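Thread: Modeling a multi-component assembly for a lab meeting

Hi all, long-time lurker, first post. My supervisor asked me to bring a structural picture of a complex we are working on to next week's group meeting, and I have zero experience with this. I have the sequence lines for every component (336 residues in total). Could someone generate the structure of the whole assembly? Inputs are pasted exactly as I received them:
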Amino acid sequence: MNSHPLAFLALFAAVAAAFPLALLAVARVWFRFIQPRRPDAIKNASYECGIAPTGDSWIQFKAHYYLYAILFLIFDVEVLFLLPFAVAFTALPAGALVAMLVFIFLLAEGLVWAWHRGHLEWK
Amino acid sequence: MSEPVPPGFTPTDAERDELRRHGILLTSLEELCDWGRSRSVWPLQFGLACCAIEMIAASMARFDIARFGSEVFRASPRQADLLIVSGTVTKKMAPSVVRLWNQMPDPKYCIAMGACAISGGPFKQGYNVLKGIDRYIPVDIYIPGCPPRPEALLHGLMQLQEKIRGQDITATAGPGGAPGSDCPVPAFGGHDLVPPQNETLWHPPALVRREDA
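Re: Modeling a multi-component assembly
Sure thing. I ran the full set together rather than chain by chain. Output:
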């Protein structure tokens, strides 16, 4: 029998599918016959650290927050590279300073752009 | 060579040990389930007062609650089996504790850790401290101490495991499995929590005067 050299991948895929499905099936049987099931209003309520939940759990998050996170990365990355640079500063050649200034310029440029576009104002 | 096993035969512990020595493991679904349950009791990540510091210590390397399968402190009651009431339950906090208990799925267990959780402890005479969490939710294990050392918590956990091991497979919390999820959440009343206790769980002790006293 001359099978494809990658045929064993099909076996792997079958096992990979069968294993979680078997576990889910066992869980299903457990859920159906053994699990003590006593739902009520409190148990089904959305979880808010034990406080009585207010409103719906389906709320919209402001997409604006995402921009803030991106802008934070500018400072984050800056600190990440500036700190080791500052520690080794005295042993570095002048070229390193120029490289670092370019690096800061590139990041600061992004910040200035975002500032100019008014992304720093919470709307 | 040997007689057939009669129907309804239940081996004693000694007979089981004998069989185990010969490589035969006798068990039932219930035993297997309890065995698994008792060794994977996941507590709710919920600390109330100084006892919580001891609870945290118990989960760290020196005491290592992971040896008992309980290191997985869950941040959500949906995934927790065990509520460790670790510290003073103020009346302000009591509704939250009861709500968290109600949100835990069965089978669930409760450990009252320390004097405050058991009875109000040093704050028993205070106006704002609940005089024992067992007034609202069914407690399985009481661990005395102020605060109890991590070893005491571990011992309490072992006692709980012992209790789980003898349990029915469909057991729910509370006496007779009755009130597990349905513990009424107390509300803030004019002077005290309303209701002041869960009537199915706790009654104020009746004063009995002896004639000869």
